[in-house]
């Protein structure tokens, strides 16, 4: 991966799934140890519907240890990383 970002995904775990509606929840851990709950929809193609940062460590972008909106700005970047290498497909067993 050549693009540098503050939010490089290190690990992803499937948290919840609702196959009838195509909605999935993932817990994403980034290389800077921050975590986020990522909501994705599988139809018609995988896309992120929302990202909410977990409060395990202060925000790596604004340094707040309370809720902030920073990760929303990275939802496209997070989506790309999740989809690009087939990670999401593997996680849900497709
Ligand atoms: Zn922030």
Draw up the topology in text.
Layout: E1 9-18, E2 23-30, E3 35-41, E4 47-53, H1 75-84, H2 87-92
The structure holds zinc ion (ZN).
Description:
There is one protein chain. The protein has 2 helices and 4 strands, in the order ββββαα. It is an alpha+beta fold and 94 residues long. It has one domain (9-92). A 4-stranded antiparallel β-sheet has the order 1-2-3-4. Strand 3 and strand 4 form a beta hairpin. The chain is globular. The mean pLDDT is 92. The chain binds zinc ion. Residues 59, 61-62, 64, 68, 70 line the site of zinc ion. Zinc ion binds at residues 59, 61-62, 64, 68, 70.
Q: In a nutshell, what does this entry contain?
A:
The chain has 94 residues and is of the alpha+beta class. 17% of the residues lie in helices and 34% in strands.
Q: What sort of overall outline do the alpha carbons produce when their principal axes are compared? A: globular
Read across the widest sheet, the strand sequence of neighbours is 1-2-3-4
Query: Roughly how many Å apart are the termini?
Result: 23 Å
Beta-strand fraction estimate: 25-35%
Mean pLDDT: 92
Structural class: alpha+beta
| Low-pLDDT ranges | none
């Amino acid at each position: 991966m050549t693009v540098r970002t503050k939010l490089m995904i290190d690990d992803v775990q499937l948290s919840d799934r609702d196959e009838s509606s195509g909605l999935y929840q993932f817990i994403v851990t980034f290389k800077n140890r921050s975590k986020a709950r990522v909501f994705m929809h599988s139809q018609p193609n995988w896309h992120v519907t929302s990202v909410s940062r977990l409060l395990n460590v202060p925000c790596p972008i604004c340094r707040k240890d309370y809720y902030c909106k920073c990760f929303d700005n990275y939802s496209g970047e997070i989506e790309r990383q999740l989809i690009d290498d087939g990670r999401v497909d593997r996680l849900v067993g497709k």
